[in-house]
Amino acid sequence: MSKYQFEICANSVESCLAAQAGGANRVELCAGIPEGGTTPSYGEIAMARELLDIRLHVIIRPRGGDFLYSSLEIKTMLKDIEMAHKAGADGVVFGCLTAEGEVDVPIMKELMRASEGLSVTFHRAFDVCCNPQKAMEEIIELGCNRILTSGQQATAEAGIPLLKALHEQAAGRICLLAGCGVNEKNIARIATETGINEFHFSAREKIASGMQYRNPVVSMGGTVQIEEYTKPMTTVERVRTTIAAIHRTFD
User: Fold this and answer.
1) HEC string of the chain?
2) What's the pLDDT score for residue 63?
3) pTM of the model
4) By C-alpha distance, which of 112, 101, 39 is closest to 76?
5) Cβ within 8 Å of residue 224, ≥6 positions away
6) What is the pLDDT of residue 251?
7) Cα separation of 45 and 86, whole Å?
8) Judging by beta carbons within 10 Å of its beta carbon (0-12, 13-18, 19+), is residue 1 exposed, middle or buried?
């Protein structure tokens, strides 16, 4: 068994299946990718669970934006954790911060209790916290299984110095999952320079819509301009290529 683990950020059941076919160990199922990922629907989770043999983790994030949540949003997250568990998810992915940029330990404890029996990843809220070294110790104490992080930079490759320091600080007490901008061109470098052995990437390509009739005047996003006639999807080939890049270097 390879010492490396590969998690695909999947934006649909189709992407989940491509991740599995490409050799991934697990998927993180998300909706709202342009917003950084939001909680997918029950139907999406249930269908992914029905069709996947690999591990299925589900992001629990009620909206885009920051990670300072209202009491109503926390109640929604608790319901979504319950929903994901009932649908057969193996893990959940969430993170909460205070207004001062610290880990919101009391709220995290509440969410951790609701997640009993599931693997828990503290997501990239970590990358916008004010003190990553302190935050990691608190996340370890909470009992989370891993932290998804880019080393507080725009990409994991740019975050290599902090990723390396955090990996050394963790000393095996928690798994660091390097993510954001990880691809076939840089995964081996990130592994070599940080010592991290779990990687999170999307391996997506733009797939053209099959729509023949198109109305160029109307946008479902209103004033927000998005490409509505292309569909970003994980592809088997890109998953395989990215995984192969690290094995070529270390096997």
Assistant:
1) CCCCEEEEEECCHHHHHHHHHHCCCEEEECECHHHCCECCCHHHHHHHHHHCCCEEEEECCCCCCCCCCCHHHHHHHHHHHHHHHHCCCCEEEECCECCCCCECHHHHHHHHHHCCCCEEEECHHHHHCCCHHHHHHHHHHHCCCEEEECCCCCCCCCCHHHHHHHHHHHCCCCEEEEECCCCCCCHHHHHHHHCCCEEEECCEEEEECCCCCCCCCCCCCCCCCCCCCEEEEECHHHHHHHHHHHHHHHC
2) 96
3) 0.94
4) 39
5) none
6) 64
7) 10
8) exposed
Q: Mean pLDDT per segment of 10 residues, for the chain of length 251 residues?
A: 89 98 98 92 98 98 97 98 98 98 98 98 97 98 98 98 98 98 97 97 94 85 73 96 89 64
Contact status, residue 78 vs residue 109, Cβ threshold 8 Å: no
Number of domains in the chain: 1
Q: CA 153, CA 95: separation in Å to the nearest integer?
A: 17
Six token digits for residue 238: 């890109």
Domain extent, residue 23, equals 5-250
Residue 87 Cα to chain centre, angstroms = 19
Residue 167 in tokens? 């990996």
CATH number, residue 200: 3.20.20.380
**Residues 147, 120: contact at Cβ < 8 Å?**
no
